[in-house]
């Protein structure tokens, strides 16, 4: 940071021809200044110039090279030259970056101090008696300065940067913001006795013509684009805008893709949809007319010959090789599951006991369960670029500090904190609040923790004050300083408002120019930049601020649990204090580093009851809906509450097994896994349970068939369908684990294993339990209370209401000739709409959504985007290995004289000029440029120890000789000799460039400080308000870093604390397409194989699921659901659940032996539709509606809305669109399967059932 004062008397380099010497105005130093302690008046002297003693020649050459009048007769002595040198230390450090600027400034002060021609342009106007005999003090002079000279000096200096402060140097040397500084008020400020530096009054008079017989000093000046005669080059572009050429212009934003002024995608999809309707409806109408004219030829587009069990004989069938293979595969699955089901019913104890042992063994891993709540671990892959860059930054420079921040507004009528009408008492109340926070004491174990124990103190141990970024630090966090004012009974000449206005323009000043002379520098030793501590102002009108921002940076300890625990304990007390703080005049929003994680955990706990109620509703529904009540008398016999509960326990056991197995493997869980997977497995598991149970309830036991044979036969019929859906989902989820996003990968692994274990338990343990329940029901024993038996009496079997509805009403209606085209038109229309708006779905996650509705953090987020003017800091990191010891290596990084036009600093500076495009808000701080400026006036003694600039020691000598070569940048050994001194030097009034505060952590020294390792250069992003802003900021910073890397030939990367969270959004679109594409391919392959190698069936299933997914994007756009890791997990899950809605219907269609596609679709919908509807749709619908009552916005949006959408879209596509699609374009009947069924069931009661 830079501690600055404001000016200084001082020095210059004349460049004009020798002329006859005139008389002097002063010579030597006399009495002490009454106004400025430590300074002296010059002695009045009107004689001729006096030869400079020999001991002053070197000093004169150092200060004013080329200032030579032959005999060196001047109007100053050696002591005046020493005073001049001391006064030039700060200007030297800040302005010597631009040789022309500093040369002109030295001219001004050398002519003032020593010129033998003083009497031509200087006039003493006030004098006092000096302490020395016969000496008179000069207490006021008039200095006639050419306006041309003044303008030229200002023009050469106006763009010079102060790298460590991210401001222009004139902001620190002019007494006001650089934008308000001009040639005259800058010189007036430097000569003003109130600046604390000038020991007497110097009145500058500007004119290019003679005034009152005086000839204004109008020496030769250099423009910043010119090199000097001593070989110094022109100023860099960063310090001299005329040297830059045209200001960069950001490329225009790409125009939106439109056709005829309409969104291109909308127009294309509208035209495509209309074209489809014309073709489709034309085909339908044409086919209908053709059938009416010719005769009935079967269903539309059906090219298959009818295959009836009663017509063709096996010997007449000419089945293809594929059909035969499919039939054999189907038969093998049926045989395998039939035998297995029969075994499970015959040996229930063995199967159930074995299942319990396996479940217990797998679930034992829950002892080792770890839950990941660290957002970095949750959202960022260890192999990702942002994660690797974060690890590199943390390992070399330490982790980014923790931030505790308040945003304070007022309820007072005049809400501008520093307007003249605003009461000072309210600012005092803010200071009281800040002091109370500083005094917070927390407990950690048996230790007391205060802010000083954990805060960031960059100058410790020299200065152990905590860094507090607050406007009150302009007043040293002191009521005494805040109340300091200068005035009389009638008028206040200077007060806190005066000091504030000065400090916001020169935040690093050690002394304001008002009558107060109070420092602006913070108590921690660094400047307080107004854009970090004020909010709600316009442009740079800081006095219009409507908000105060107070930030307490706290050290972060990633690898020290004790110190981290202390920080967390203090933060907890900080939150508690502010929650309980009340002030009727102040409105406070606040945030701590731990706040977001705390609120997410609180949210999870508060939503636990909502989730429990949701699951309870689903459990109750499942338990009651499984039963098929034949009569009121047999309610307790025909109910299947115990079986339903057992099915639910099996579902939960499969989840526990999955969690346990991966916990054994050391894979941590996430909250998404815990919240989402039970919902997913319940959907899949309950569907399978309903299919098994309802198929059994509708089945008639064949003659001479025992119970175990019947259930085995039923399992042989339905288990291949269950296996199809479960295995498809398992493969799809496991392939989803290819994702680099930890949250998605973890979810996919746990979900895939849980679904498959659930399937295994259902075809084993649940089948055994079904056999036991069937025996109980046949023996008229009551459900749950199985010891109680009803009197004998048998009720006739009837079909359930839902089955009858689907069979007799719903399926025939949906497949009517006039309904089917309407269904296709509606669903294709929905698809077209969804495609048109898919690219409009926003990417990102608004962090406000992750908070509960009643969270205090929401107010903070709101005020953050409303009031703040500066975004997060961004560091451009130069990786280890760059050569800083050579001029070539330095020139590729630095931003001063001689540096490359495409150097790191220059490129970041250029980017800051178009901040609206690049999001780089300020010029970067540069340790290298400040080091070059710092090393020029520094000293060290004969032992090699560093001499601080504020210490006067005759043993101290220049670090660099004051020769032309010594004034060049240090290279090779010199560079490393003085760099550790720079990094340990604290800024002070005489040396504002000391690097301890600003750069001690920015440079890694290696090999006992013999070489430079990794380094960084910091600036700030512009204000970032939402996810697109953060994503764009990271993209632009990376583009800039890539350009710098190319120019330097060495790796440079940008780092900001938020990159690790937002990097996922750079590739989220690609990741989404990849994840869903891989899942669809897996479903297609598995479906094709398990349906007996029926390729077309796999295509139709994949098309329907793809339509569901695309429609999910349409819903996301309509319902303002953004695309992020949470919604991607839901989309992957949607893909899995959609299989349940589609695969059972398609398999039932493929094995149907009806004669036409319409009849086969009707049979499939009647048999499987009711089970799918009752098993998934109704089960989930009740549970999902409860989620709408959640206090959590993330639950309402990403769970309630998306779950509701996936269930409704899945149900409508599976139960409405898919049967219609099959009736039009379903696969042809498999002849081999038809005649295998003929052979298997000929002459049995089953033949009649097949024809339902």
UniProtKB/TrEMBL annotation:
Gene Ontology terms for molecular function: cholesterol binding; lipid transporter activity
Gene Ontology CC: one annotated term: plasma membrane
InterPro entries linked to this entry: HMGCR/SNAP/NPC1-like_SSD, NPC1-like, NPC1_MLD, NPC1_N, SSD
Annotated signal peptide: 1-21
Gene3D superfamilies from the UniProt entry: Multidrug efflux transporter AcrB transmembrane domain (1.20.1640.10)
One of the GO BP terms on file: cholesterol transport
Residue stretches spanning the membrane: 257-290, 349-369, 608-629, 641-665, 671-693, 747-772, 1073-1093, 1100-1119, 1125-1143, 1164-1190, 1202-1225
Domain SSD per the UniProt entry, residue ranges: 607-772
Lipid biosynthesis among keywords: no
Subcellular location per the Swiss-Prot or TrEMBL entry: Endomembrane system
Pfam families found in the cross-reference section: NPC1_MLD (PF22314), NPC1_N (PF16414), Sterol-sensing (PF12349)
Keywords per UniProt: Cholesterol metabolism, Disulfide bond, Glycoprotein, Lipid metabolism, Lipid transport, Membrane, Signal, Steroid metabolism, Sterol metabolism, Transmembrane, Transmembrane helix, Transport
Domain of life: Eukaryota
Main localization (coarse): membrane
Substrates-to-products reaction catalysed: cholesterol(in) = cholesterol(out)
Keyword Repeat in annotation: no
Topology in membrane: Multi-pass membrane protein
UniProt similarity note: Belongs to the patched family.
Protein name: Niemann-Pick disease, type C1
Organism: Oncorhynchus mykiss
Gene responsible for this protein: npc1
